[in-house]
Write a structure and sequence with these properties.
Blueprint lengths: L9 H8 L3 H5 L7 H16 L5 H10 L6 H11 L29 H4 L5 E3 L5 E3 L7
Antiparallel strand pairs: 1-2
Helix pairs in contact: 3-5, 4-5
Length: 136
């Protein structure tokens, strides 16, 4: 994308692409062998304990004799795109715009609702027959 040999200066090439000039010169640091080994350990623990967050994984690594800080575990989890699986807040709220269906049998008893004899209550309040039997 950016050609240092081009007549247009790198600054103007970066501006034309909509990126900062520092990203042109950025070289990512390679992951160390120790971090790769630690990431394998975290991955193994995450497969066994998918609900474990950075604190619990730090403690589990400590049981294996590895002293690692929670923030380093969190950084490696982010690099590996691992998240703890747990219940998130507001999961029982309905989606916006979703229709809420009323409970139509409130106040009705089994004898009133015709349970078992083929009649069912439609959402608009009308009773309709599903089976071919005649009511007794």
């Amino acid at each position: 994308m950016i050609d240092p040999e081009h007549d247009l200066p790198i600054t103007q090439q970066a501006e034309a692409l909509g990126i900062s000039r520092s990203t042109v010169y950025y070289l990512p640091r390679p992951v160390s062998a120790e971090d790769l080994w630690l990431m394998r350990q975290i991955d193994e623990l995450h497969l066994n304990y998918p609900f474990a967050g950075s604190r619990m994984l730090r403690d589990l690594l400590g049981h294996r004799g590895l002293e690692v800080g929670r923030r380093h575990v969190r950084t490696l989890m982010r690099r590996m795109a691992i998240k703890a699986i747990y219940r998130r807040p507001n999961t029982s709220k309905p989606a916006p715009g979703r229709r809420i269906y009323p409970y139509l049998l409130r106040g009705h008893h089994a004898a009133q609702s015709g349970v078992g004899d083929g009649y069912h209550l439609h959402p608009d309040g009308a009773w309709f027959r599903l089976s071919g039997r005649t009511p007794a």
